[in-house]
Amino acid sequence: MFVLILGLVLFLGLHSLRIVADDWRTRQVARLGARRWKALYSLVSLLGFVLICWGFGLARHTPVLLYSPPVWLIRLNALFTLVAFVLLAAARVPRNGIKARLHHPQVLAVKTWAFGHLLAAGMLHDALLFGAFLLWSVLLFAASRRRDNREGTTYPPGTTKGTVITIVAGVTAWAAFALWLHALLIGVKPVM
Question: Quick one: how many helices (H) and strands (E) in the chain?
Answer without folding.
Answer: 10, 0
